[in-house]
Structure formats: structure tokens, C-alpha cells
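Homework-ish question, so no full write-ups if that breaks the rules, but can someone show me the predicted structure for this set?
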Amino acid sequence: MKKVITGDHAVALGAKLCRVDVVPAYPITPQTLIIEHIADFVNDGEMDAKFLTMESEHSVMSAAAAASAAGARVFTATSSQGLAFMYEMLYATAPMRLPIVMANANRTLAAPPGIWCEYNDSMGVRDSGWLQVYVEDNQEALDMVIQSFRIAEDKRVLLPVMPCLDGFVLTHTVEPVDVPQQEDVDSFLSPYAPDIMLDPARPTMIGIFMPAEYIMELRRQTMGAVESAKKVIGEINDEFAKVFGRNYGGMIDTYMMEDAEVALVTMGTVTSTSREVVDELRKVGKKVGLVKLRFFRPFPVDELRKALSGVSAVGVFDRSISYHGGGPAFNEIQSALYGMTMPVVNHLAGIGGRDVTREQIIKMFEITIKAGKGEKVNTINWHNTRGETV
Amino acid sequence: MFEVRFHGRGGQGAVMAAQALAEAAVIEGNYAVAFPFFGAERRGAPVLAFTRIDAKKIYSKTQVYSPDCVVVLDDSLLDTIDVVAGLKPGGSVVINSRDKPEDIDLGISVKTAAVDATSVALEILKAPITNTAILGAFAKATGIIKLESLEEAIKRRFGEKLGEKVAERNSLAARTAYGKTVIGKSKGIKKLEPKKQWLPTYQELPAGGSLVEGKTDAGLIGPGSFIENKVMGWATFRPVRDREKCTMCLLCWFYCPEGTIVRISDRGDLMTNYDYCKGCGVCANECPVDAIKMVRARV
Ligand code: SF4
Ligand code: SF4
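A: Not a homework solution, just the prediction itself:
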């Protein structure tokens, strides 16, 4: 059934279709519509979940951890300052192997205070052990909530997953979304049945104190779980495609990469706009292609090396800055491509919610094409930033 | 692809209008996207919303810069905003106004459809929320969407949230406005000087973005600069206080979001500075003795 809905509404419907048991919630723009929709579903008897209104995001994640440890399927959503306020509990939930799913509506993290899209909120928690996936439209937002539960609860993974959607650009945009049938979701996602959980009948300790004799092993174990998620993500993507007819490519997606000479790596909604720009540039004979970085954790090292092996230059879009120079995606891609010889240039744009226009994306391609021809270009390019020339 | 830009004020429902239009286009078998662009959320402040309609899936996630049609929910915006900026050649404007198209000066002469959507809304909805009425005018002016599809979309969007009655009334507002819309050509005389904005480079921006009182080419910045942001043009209504009834409880003074009700201490009285009153009606709503009446500000 096609519904014309916002990204937030799509995410809420995803949570409902996953039959989540517990939703601890705290509002923050631009995520608020998600929990408002869920509150409505619960209130109207359409969703059989415990809706907990908490006094802060830190408490939200604490309640989520407790409920998940007790064997409940848990969903919540947050954004920006809310995510920052959860910081401590994010680092607790992943090594405890609690398969919580939390949508993050990407929003600039103050200062300066603002409400629009930037990735500096979720990028700041990229080493918490949470898996992260960035989506480009409302359909993918809904679908990835469903896939996230499958990935999170897979016995080879057992890690929390954070589907990230661009604040306002998706959260408040309506577009047609194919809402899956409940029966189909039910057969795709079975009820959560953990092997270990807090159960008075079978006393268990979760998240125990560990001295140095154990922590290295626990970290290594968590790293192993993140690594095995790569395979699981691929499998679940393929299975989802078979059942629902939508294939997102798994760790990354590619567009017109078969014969591309130059590639741009994008995340989130800029990918969507870039697809049109690629079509446009192809029409005038420019052999350009697109790689969409979907999962940031686990990081698709092998997939990127393979997809980018034939190009003469790589441009990397970033919607936040890592204060060592470029953006986080750029840093990690440079490291992933280590040993490969093509130039990699960084395109910073859309920070603080500034609109990333067609013209800016064309400019990103132009600079990357120049780099591919061996011409001198800046490695870090601040697009459309007063006082900078690109 | 057909692109629409809506100009309205916070609270007038521009976003809802953009969404209902997208829904109507989908009902007709097209693909459509609608999205808002706000400044800091504030009732009465200018807002933008966009709708894109196409036969195939739309990938573009940018704002609309060259619309095929511009919809203006509040003609007081014409004084400060160049609503026709970027309008495609052959494009049109749909405007909520009591004037005939020929009397509306947009700075260029373009196809213009005018309807007094405020009066339609006040009559049918009992509130100056003009979004559904203006969509009726849009349907008539552009022919991009059928009135029936629009009514169906309004019923779906409003029905789900606000109930069938509200949906039916909004649908009636669209139909009524459709009937009353006058199509013609705007005047193209005035030269709108776009308001200058202070846009420093990163080198010019004071450290941390901290501002002290300052004067720039684009006007004042920092503390006290609010004085330049007169908002009386936003108001459809303005508050009038009945001194006899007023008990000086000061609730209106406390609740006014613009801080424009001032205490005149030596007289033990209140004064509303209309320059900064956006006509939100909060004061009238809060007054425990109904001493404040909201009267129509623009005729
Ligand atoms: S004076 Fe009344 S109507 Fe005017 S801004 Fe203040 S509260 Fe709103
Ligand atoms: S709220 Fe009403 S009674 Fe109180 S001071 Fe204002 S006008 Fe007077």
C-alpha cells in the first residue's frame, strides 16, 4: 500500500511493523514526529508496545538497555543533543550485546544551536560499537528499520543498530512509501528470542564489572561481532530484496560504476540528488559514477576497494568535519583505500543544513575529474563556504 | 517535472498545503514530494514549502529554485519578499489577495490568479488558515491537478488527523476558492530591493559567532538588533485592550511571545507596541477577564 508520508512517519510505521515491545521516548526536533506517531499507534490500540516517557535521553537509553536485557524488542529514536546526552549509555549497550534499534534524525550538534541536517551527531558515536546505516529516502528509512532488527538480533551479530536519516530533508518531507504488509514482515522477522536474558527463574548477570584480565577479550569479541555483521548485512539485504522487491546493495550501493572513470562517494539524501547529476553528466559524455556509503559501521573496506578499483580519482562527500582536517568519511575512505594510487579528494558541503544543490554536486565532480587528470586541486574542499575558494 | 514554491507564515499551513498537493498528485498516479523550509520556528514568521510533481520517481532532494508556480498564502509577504524570484518563463503566481490580478504589483507581469482566501477561510473554517482555500485557486490557475483529487487529498490528510468534519470544511474551502479565483496578469512596476543580509566570511565572523552590538551594511547585528525586525506586517489581527475591563493582572504582559506589551510604570498601565505585535492572539487568549479583543488588522 502506497502512502504519502514523512520520513519520521515511515520510521514509526517500520517500528510498528516490527512489533516492538518497548519504546522509551524523549522528544527532540526533528525526530519528534517519530515518537509522536508511535505514541498515537499505542494509544489507538494499533501497536501493542509499552510506551515509556522518560525524563531525558540518558534515561531513554538506560531504559532501553534494561528492557532489551530482559528480552524485549526495543525501539527508540533521537537526534543531535539527545544522542550526545546518551553517549555514556551507547558505549554501554553495544559491548553488552543488546540488539536495540534507534533511529537518529541527523541534526547539527551545538554550538551553534541549529536544527538542520549535519552528521556531527552520529559521527561522534561511531566508535561506540553501534552499527550505523545512512538512508537516502523515506522508503529506505522504513525498510532499514525492519532490516536493522534482523541484523541486530542475528546471533552472529547481537549489536545495536542506528538507522540515520537526514533531519528535515527526510524527516519532514513527504513522498510515496510502499508500506509492507504485516504478514510479510512477520515472516521476515521472527519474534526476538535471546539465549541470555535477565530472568528471575534463571539468574543472570549482564554488563558486569570486569578487571583488566577480561576487557581486552571483550573488546576483541565486540570487534568480531562488528566484523561478522558485514556478511549478515549482505545476506539480509538479499533476502529482503527477494521478499519485498527492493535491493539496497547491502554495505554500499553503486550507480553507473561499471565503466566510471571518476567516482563520488556520498551518504544520505545527497546520494539521491547526485543520481540525477550523474545522469546529467553522462548525457554530456562524462563517465562518472556514484558510490553510496550506506553502512559506516561496519565500514565497507573491501566493498569500497572493489567498487573504486577502476577509477582515476575519488571524491568523497562529507556532511561534518573531523577536526584533523577533512570529514570522517574522507578519513576512513583514505585509510580503506591505502595502497591504491588514485587521488582522493574531500568535498565538505551541506553542513548545518545548508542546501546541497545540483550545482555544488557538479562542482564536486569537476574537481574530482581534474584530480583524475593529474591537475592540482585542493584535497579538502569547503563547498559554498564564504571565505573559501574551491 | 512541475515545481511549486509556497510562501506563507508560520501557522498558516503552507507545509500542509504543499503536502496535500503532493498527495493529490499521487492520487492522480504521479510521483510527488513535498517538504518545508523553516527559519527558527515561530508563529507568524515567513516560511517556505515546496512540492515537486512528476510522472516518474523524483530523486532531487534540494530546495526548489526555479518554480513553475509560486503560491503566496499571505499578500503582506509581497512587501518584503521577492516571491517571483527564479520563476520559470511562462510560470504563474497564485496569491491570496483581495485585489484583482491587474492591481497586484509583483515587479514583473506574469499570469496571476487571485482569490481572497482569508475571507473564504474565515467564513468556512472560522480561522485565517488559508492553505486549503489557496489550493483550490492553484487547481483552477494551473490545471495541474483536478479539483476532485485535491478534495480527496484534503480529506485524507485532514481526516486522519482532525476528523471528517474538519476535512469536509477544508474541502469546501478549496471548492469555494476554486469558484472565486480570478485569473489575469500582474502589474510589473515596483522594484523590490531585497533586504540585505549580513553574510560574513569565516574570517570575518567573530570568534565563536559571538556578537556585540554592531552596525553593518545590512543593518544592526547583535544585542538590540531586534529593534529593526518590525513584525506588524505579519498580523491579520491585532489586539485591542478594554481599559475598563482590565484588572492589570499582567498575564498578557507575561505571555506575549514578542515582549511587545510594555508596562508604563508611572501610570500603572500597559501599552502594546504594534510595531512588534505579530497578531498571534496569545494575549487575548490568556486574559482572564476577556479584556482583549482581536480585530482584523488588514482590510
Ligand atoms: S500583543 Fe498579543 S497579539 Fe501581539 S504579539 Fe503579543 S501576544 Fe501576540
Ligand atoms: S491579561 Fe487582561 S486583565 Fe490582565 S493585564 Fe492583560 S488585559 Fe488586563
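Now go work out the reasoning yourself. Hint: The mean pLDDT of chain A is 97.
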